[in-house]
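User: Thanks for the earlier help. One more: Tryptophan synthase beta chain-like PALP domain-containing protein. Can you show the sequence and predicted structure together?

Assistant: Of course, both are below.
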Amino acid sequence: MYSYLNPAARSWVCQSSVNPDVEQLHRQLPDYASTPLVPMNDLANELGIGRIYVKDESHRFGLPAFKILGAAWAVYRAVAAILGVPPTLSVGELGVAAMKQSVKLVACSDGNWGRAVARMARYLHIPATIFLPRNIDRATRDKIASEGARALVVDGDYDAAIE
């Protein structure tokens, strides 16, 4: 087993350029919660290091993946741009404006992205259609549909779903 110790790690400081609007949007969404850090004590002991933590994204907004974070921001920005409104409206305000203009979301996916886009459409109260490749399993298709989206399976692979 190889290990690399970085002596500069103790003094490293994150110089993040995170857009505060993204976090503000995520905090508006139902079921927002900070992501827990799970201690991996056995692994840390096995590797002979002090601590290891894993960021557990497996329950983000009740979904099994972090995809909702990117999907929420992408959908929010795209809908705001389509409507010609500033990306400062609340999710509720943007949803009302989108409904008035009959905005619909369309995406392609082979799983978690489609469900995340469908969830954002549900938050905005607008329709969504998610195109899926033929090899998609029934459970994944049903989960996307459970968000209120129309889940359409195409005769082909992921590239066909994109077309």
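User: Great, one quick takeaway?

Assistant: The longest strand covers residues 128-132.
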